[in-house]
Write a structure and sequence with these properties.
Elements lengths: L1 E5 L3 H12 L3 E5 L3 H8 L10 H8 L4 E4 L10 E4 L14 H13 L6 E5 L7 H13 L7 E5 L9 H6 L3 E5 L3 H15 L1 H7 L15 E5 L1 H32 L3 H9 L20 H14 L5 H25 L6 E5 L14 H11 L3 E5 L4 H7 L6 E2 L12 E4 L11 H7 L4 E4 L6 H6 L3 E3 L17
Parallel strand pairs: 1-2, 1-4, 2-3, 4-5, 5-6, 7-8, 9-10, 9-12, 10-11, 12-13, 13-14
This protein binds uridine-5'-diphosphate-xylopyranose.
Length: 468
């Protein structure tokens, strides 16, 4: 099929690449010439494992990139995958969506039926709004010449290709027969065994071809829009809940790792998203919880559980600072090493992460901060140009004259740290592992005082491992 994907950001570039890999003639459109040039040079415009392999293979064959909206005129499906940042009141700012709708409207043709698919995470009712804008700018009749469907993305950064090719679910919000038919045709190769087989050589990960197919779920447009928010808010609640249990364990005893494992054995609860942390962050959870809260309040039906999860999450960021204060008495003049600035491993995304919150609080209390992240330092520095912190190119250097080293992001390479060497650099050998990710035994062997989250030290297993 002929597809246009508007937006070469995270969602658009991954979606466009996946559609092209499935044999669709896909053009990615973005107003940022830098992103388009990168794609045309065969480079991924974003850091995401696997994209560097797929983009050069596909560009110029089934994947095209341009700053012109003209390919919209021939497209059968046009994806809108532009940003929806949080506005001042917490609700999603739709200015990019509206500008995109206007550009699409100017090019819609009455020669053929066009499906406009909303990939961006948008508030309930946005498909309706876009329908009105398209009708106004194109002069065409909605549902006769075009339809707007909701098709939310569920990509996790760091695993986006895996999620786009082997999704748990594909959700389509539409009641328009032709809209539904064109979306089924588009996604046919994603959900057929043949599609899986053709794509498998592109991946670095393995997939069980006998695994059940993705759930292809059709519903009305508003429900599809809500499914995205409802899912992300639910996951945020789940993490906030285990983090609160971690805090409880620290005062009454118990091991949050075992509690998560025990709870997860109930198939109604499941093991996922019960891993303790310094709180959730990233480009989706804060924005999406804020939007759904603001919408629910606007309609007088506040999601109280989500509100509590958001408050609990900030409390969790602060809890890390409090733990440091408990150990070091005062932070004034203390040197703190931070391992991890990105909101999770395998991404360079350092926007609004727990690291920036925690670092701000440390600096406010007079601490000196030195940081490391395998991928996130560039973005973090660009977003916080005036922050008086030191960037270390080697994780070991975060220990230099430090009174504490705090692991915030569980990058695999932090498991390989030479703790003896790090200990030799530290002023006070103390490691706070907010993800219970490191091996306490190895760290203790290096004569470093190890502290995890939600687990009393006397509950460590003989090999010192507290997480799976
Ligand atoms: C999320 C959703 O998972 C994805 O479906 C949606 O499309 C976009 O938002 P993402 O933001 O990439 O994806 O990251 P995710 O892996 O969900 O993690 C979000 C945050 O929760 C991170 O800060 C992560 O470290 C934290 N987290 C996750 C925990 O603290 N504990 C967990 O058990 C899981």
């Amino acid at each position: 099929m002929k597809v246009v994907c508007i937006g070469a950001g995270y969602v658009g570039s991954v979606t466009g690449t996946a559609l092209a890999a499935n044999g669709h003639q896909t053009t990615v459109v973005d107003i940022d010439p830098d992103k388009i040039d990168r794609l045309n040079r065969g480079e991924s415009p974003i850091y995401e494992p696997g994209m560097d392999t797929l983009v050069p293979e596909l560009i110029g064959k089934s994947l095209f990139a341009t700053s012109s909206y003209d390919p919209v005129a021939d497209a059968e499906v046009v994806f809108i995958a532009v940003g929806t940042p949080s506005g001042a009141d917490g609700s999603a700012d739709l200015r990019y969506i509206k500008a995109t709708a206007e550009q699409i409207g100017k090019r819609l043709s009455s020669d053929h039926f066009t499906v406009i698919a909303m990939k961006s995470t948008v508030p309930v009712g946005t498909a309706e709004l876009v329908t009105t804008l398209l009708a106004e700018t194109s002069g065409l009749t909605a549902e006769t010449h075009f339809t707007v469907v909701s098709n939310p993305e569920f990509l996790r950064e760091g695993y986006a290709l895996e999620d786009v090719f082997f999704p748990d679910r594909i959700v389509i919000g539409s009641v328009h027969p032709q809209g539904l038919q064109q979306m089924r045709q588009l996604y046919q190769s994603f959900i057929s065994r043949e599609g899986y087989e053709r794509l498998t050589p592109h991946f670095t990960f393995t997939y069980d071809l006998n695994a059940p197919r993705a759930n292809y779920f059709e519903t009305d447009t508003k429900s599809a829009e809500l499914i995205k928010y409802a899912s992300n808010a639910f996951l945020a609640v789940k993490i906030s809940y285990i983090n609160e249990l971690a805090r409880l364990c620290e005062v009454i005893g118990g091991n949050v790792q075992d509690i998560a494992a025990g709870m997860g054995l109930d198939s109604r609860i499941g093991h996922k998203f019960l891993q303790v942390s310094s709180g959730w962050s990233g480009s989706c959870f804060p924005k999406d919880t804020s939007e759904i809260l603001s919408t629910s309040e606007k309609y007088g039906s506040e999601l109280m559980v989500v509100k509590a999860a958001v408050e609990s999450n900030e409390r969790m960021h602060m809890y890390v600072v409090e733990k440091l204060i408990r150990r070091l008495k005062s932070l004034n003049g203390k040197r703190i090493g931070i391992l991890g600035l990105s909101f999770k491993p395998n991404t360079d995304d350092a926007r609004k992460t727990q690291a920036s919150f925690i670092i701000d609080k440390l600096l406010e209390r007079g601490a000196l901060v030195q940081v490391h992240d395998p991928q996130g330092m560039g973005m973090f520095r660009a977003l916080n140009p005036d922050l008086p912190i030191e960037y270390c190119h080697d994780p070991i250097q975060t220990g230099r004259l430090a009174d504490a080293v705090v692991l915030l992001t569980h990058w695999q390479e932090y498991r390989e740290i030479d703790w003896q060497k790090l200990a030799s650099l530290m002023r006070q050998p103390y490691v706070l592992d907010t993800r219970n990710f490191l091996n306490p035994n190895e760290i203790q062997k290096a004569k470093i005082h190890y502290e995890g989250m939600g687990v009393s030290e006397h509950l460590l297993s003989p090999d010192g491992v507290i997480g799976q």
